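Input/output pair, single chain:
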Amino acid sequence: MSERTDNKSWQYPLALFFVVLTGTALVQIGLGLVINNIVTEDTPAWVPTAIQIAALTLVLFPLAWVFALWPILAANHRIIRQYRELETKVEDRTQHLSQTRALLNKETAAKEQVERRLQDSKAQFQTLADYFPDPVFVLDQEDKTVPFRVLYVNGVVTKLQGMQTGELVGKSITGLFQMTEKSASGGDWLNRVFSGEVIGFEASIKHQNGSSIPVEVRAGIVPWMGRRAVLVIVRDLSERTHFEDSNRRSKAQLMDAIESIDAGLVMFGPDERLVVCNSKYKQLYAAGAHAMVPGTPKETVLREYCRNGGKPPDGLSVDDWIKQRLSAHRQPGHESIQRLGDRWIRVSDRRTSDGGVVSLRTDI
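Output:
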């Protein structure tokens, strides 16, 4: 386009040149006619020549100025044209920058909104975690400099570990806990979780005072502030372990008491399945002792007794005797005398609070 504009700019002086040239020729013709009319024999010879020179000067002088000033005018025209093109480019660039700035502002606002949402989610999570009764850890999955770095921990950890949250955040969990996994699978549980596995196992943790605390650990991958992290929940099992130990001791004491009774004792649940019996009871009904396992139905115990040599009294058939014993079992609260071979057994059945039956068998 600039070449066409430059070529066009030189068309005007050329046209003007031809116009002036044509005008000069016409002036010469006109001067010739005028001179012939005004010049006489007395007119000096130099007058026609002077008139022609003056006329040509008046005609050629503007043309000389045009050719002298035209390069300057053409250069000025190019400068003006380039300036306008530059203005157009600046306007386009300014518009483009404005659009870019608007887009950046929009992206910045969207990013700030996402960050606010992440912060709100983090605050909500922390609020819930602070009310959670168990220690909660969030570990960085992507940090290679400090593997298993603690990003967040709730305040309950002070009871479990004896350390403040500020002492834990930013440090590797492997250097804070001496955890021994008790599960049969073994292995590096953190690396298993980092690979995407959701795991749960029991372990023990060393407290700062040197004591060992039984815990249950559950861990898995969760989103955290726009990245992947590991959520670890550690439940203190001290109370449960203490309760289980107490329960075992109580059960052992109860069994000792049951075994010390000089009579057969048996207990069935509401579903008529064996709960417990002592050795004296197994001795009285030795033929069916092998079936006296917790969870075995009473009818099965009676049939096994008869199948292995036990005989129903008074010539009753096996089915009639079993039917009689089940009927008595289902209507406890009465004492009866039962013949067992050459022995006589006092039977005393009582209903338990859960709907089962406890029975005392005394050899009289």
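The CA atoms of residues 140 and 229 lie 5 Å apart. The first helix runs from residue 2 to 9.
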